[in-house]
Amino acid sequence: MKPREAARPGPSAPFGELHVAVEPGGFDGVDAAGRGAVLAALLEAGHPVSRKAGAGEGALARLGSDIGVVDRAPEQVVEDVAARREAAAAPAPGAWTPWFPVIDYDRCTNCMQCLSFCLFDVYSVDGEGRITVQNQEKCKTSCPACSRVCPEVAILFPKYKKGPINGDEVKAEDIASESMKVDISSLLGGDIYSALKERSGSAKKRFSTERDESKALLERKRCLKELKDKLDIPSEVLMSLPSAGDIEERARRARAKQEERIARSRSAQDQKETDGASAKEWDI
Amino acid sequence: MSRRIVHCHCVYSKVVPADVKTAVLERLAGSDAEFEAVPDLCEMSAGKDPALARFAGDGEVEIVACFPRAVRWLFHSAGHDLAAEASIHNMRSSTADEVCGALGLPDGESAS
């Protein structure tokens, strides 16, 4: 099934091109709370700040010689920095919410369930046949679905509200927990998919006699809400769940891709060894 | 190499308590410590920001952000593994006093 959300803008320009430097003495005359307020306002507006030796070099703005802080509201300081950022044609911050999966390779077994399941092509396979997060910007904001299907609790979303998906330590009970571990076959081919289909079918039958479509819609919404609450997966993702057949096809493609990458990598290695042997033979 | 502090303000979400991150920032600003404060480490990781290489490989770095497991793998994801000696302070599970105490920052009263 096709993802419903178009690719969003990616991360903004690098730190080094954008940072605001606090010069020595740049905060003189401002108390700790005032300094904190200026820093917080700059960060909230997406401007990194550096206070260290040499920070002024290449800085977008310097608090001190470029922009004064004393007796000024934090918002005024931010406005000055934003004007410089605009003048430098640097991208505006905050165009993309950085929500994406991060793999804990100490736990990952490369089973590829996440790649098979993800609706948005976030995952791929690297040159060594290892699962990797390739398209962070395609991830559906606030959707932790792939971490729910990971049998090893190896997928983190650092901005998720609860552990261990948020990066908190994984405990034995987390792996066993029903709310954490959802077997992919039951999620996609069994319980949820069937439940949705079954409810939809029985509701259709019931409501076709009652001629009340709004009730059918309410029933569907209620069912989706139940699932959303249980797994924290956005309803639009639940509505787009791939079928078991889709999953099998994705898994097949993932395996093929993995084998192809490994074969390519081996072939390159063999070639390298052959070249090395020839060079040795010819004493190059 | 000298000690460096990197503060993540996690601006795109509310998972880090605002009172904790603001209090830590105030104490940092009131101290003499060198630091770099970034809007969001996740954003930098996704963008493979070259500054992460500097943070990761720069001696005694102390990262003030969220869960250590998340921070370490965010750096790895950007292609820059954190040094084993890097310290990570978690503002999601610690108080501002605990974090600032671990960083050796003066308390709010004595900060200038």
Can you tell me about this structure?
The complex is a heterodimer of chains A (284) and B (112). With 284 residues, chain A is mainly α. Among the domains of chain A are: 15-87, no CATH class; 102-183 and 225-239, Alpha-Beta Plaits (2-Layer Sandwich), CATH 3.30.70. Helix content of chain A is 47%, strand content 7%. Chain A has eleven helices and seven strands. In chain A, strand 1, helix 2 (32-44) and strand 2 (49-51) form a beta-alpha-beta unit. Residues 1-9 of chain A have low confidence and may be disordered. With 112 residues, chain B is of the alpha/beta class. Chain B has one domain (4-91). Chain B has helices at residues 18-30, 41-46, 51-57, 68-77, 96-103, and strands at residues 4-8, 35-38, 61-65, 87-90. Chain B has a four-stranded parallel β-sheet, sandwiched between helices. In chain B, helix 4 links the parallel strand 3 and strand 4. In chain B, helix 1 (18-30) runs parallel beside helix 5. The longest helix of chain B has 13 residues, at 18-30. The two termini of chain B are 26 Å apart. Classes of the chains: A mainly alpha (284), B alpha/beta (112). At the A-B interface, helix 2, strand 2 and strand 4 of A face helix 1, strand 2, helix 2 and helix 4 of B.
